[in-house]
Design goal:
The protein has 21 helices and 14 strands. By secondary structure, the protein is an alpha/beta fold.
Length: 480
Amino acid sequence: MQNLNRKNTAISSTLPIKVVQFGEGNFLRAFIEYAIQTLNKEIGFDAGIAVVQPIDKGMVSILNDQDGLYTLFTKGIENGKEVEKKELITNIVAGIDPYLNFDEYLNLAKQPELGFVISNTTEAGITYVASDRIDMSPPSSFPAKLTRLLFERFSYFNGAKNKGLTIIPCELINHNADTLKQIILQYISLWKLSKEFKNWILNSCSFHNTLVDRIVPGYPKDQIFIYNKQLEYQDNLIVCAETFFLWVIEGDASLKEKLPFHKTKLDVKIVNDMQPFRTRKVRILNGAHTAMVPFSLLFGNETVKETVEQSFTGEFVRSLVYEEIIPTLDMEKEELVTFTDAVFDRFLNPFIKHKLESIALNSISKFKVRVLPSLLNYTDRKGRLPTKMVFVFACLIRFYKGDYNDRTMPINDDKNIVLEMSVIWQSTDFVDIAKKVLGKTEYWGQNLNLVKGLTSAIATSLELIEDYGIEKGFSKLSSK
C-alpha cells in the first residue's frame, strides 16, 4: 500500500495561506480543517492552512511526512439512520515547528493573503507567562508566540490597516478571545512595544469569542486495520469524529462576509452573544465528560459509551447531569432536558469509541472550567453540597495518585501539577490531602476549603474510595 502524500494522490498544495492554526491535534483536524475545506469546496473560499505546533513536543513532523494530508471519518446517527462518511482533508499546506524553524514561523506573518488565526491549545494554553521575552525563539506561551507573530506582520507591512488579522480561538474557556486579547496587550506592555502597534491590534485586528462542539475520539488505534482497509493508501493520521457539528462565533455582519458559512450546510452560528450556547454546552456535555473520566477510569471502564451503558456508572452520570447540573442553569428546563437527551444519544453513538484516556488531558484545569462552577452554583442555590459532584471531585484527586486496583491511570497534565499531586499523596491523612488540594488557589481560582463542608466531604469520599472502591464506596457515602 502506497504512502499518503501529494505526489501519490496528485493533490496540489497551491492554496494560499489564509489561516494560521495553532495546534495540530485531533480536534482541530476534525473540526477546523473540515470546516475550511467545506468552505473551499462549496463556495470556492480557496484557503490554505499553515499549522503551527504550539508546544515543544508535537506531531507536525508526522503531518509533514504526509504533506498535510489525512483522512477524516465521521460516523453517527442522522434522522434515525446510521451514517458513515470519509473525506481526505487536503487544505493543510504547511506544518511548522517554531522550536526548530523559528524564522519559518515568523515568515507566516508576511503572507499577503493571511486573514485568520485559529487556535486550540487546551484550556491551559491561553496563559500569561511573565518570563516570556520578545527575543526568545520562540517564547514559551501561545499568546506570546502570537504576539510575536502579530508584531512581525505589523512591522513587515508598515502597520497597514488592511493587514490586520481575524483571531478566533477555540480553547474551551469563557471569553476565550477577550482573554487572549488582554494577554497580548500585557505582552505589548511588558515588551515595551510601540503605541502604534497597540493601536493596530485594537483597531485593525478583531477577536471573536467562540464555542465549538463536536466529539472527536481521535486516532482509532484499536480499529486501525478496519479503517485502513477502506483506504488505498497508508494513513498514519486518521482521525474519527461524530457527524454532529456546531460552531458558535461572536461577530457581526462583517465577520459573516469574511467567513460565509451561511452559504454552506454547516451549522456555524455567528451571533452577538454566544454565552447561552456556551454555558449549556460546557456545563452539560463537557461537564459530563470531565466528571466521568476519573470516576469511570477508577471504576474500570475504558470508553464513554461503556460508561453510559454500564448500570452503575451510567445511572450515576445521568443522575449527576439531570439532578445536579441542570438545576444550576438558567435556561428553560425543557430546552436543557432536550439538549441533555441529545448529548446522551451522542455518548451512545455506536460508531464512536471515545476512550476516556483520550479526554484525560489537563483534567484539573478542565474540572475548574467545566464542573466546579456547577458544584458551587448548586451549593449556593440548594444550601447543600451536590453528592455526586463531590464524589467525582474526590475521584479526580484520587486519579492523580496513580495506579488503582492494579490499573495504571493515564495521568496527562502539566509536569508541575503531577509532581505537586504526587507530593501531596505522600500523606496518608485524607483530611490533610483534601485540605492541601482544595487550598491550591492556582488550580481552582479560590481556596475551596472555604466552601462549607467540602473539605470533610472530599476527605470522607477519598477514604471510602480507598477502602471500598468506586461503586461500594459511593453506596456507603450516599447512605450516610
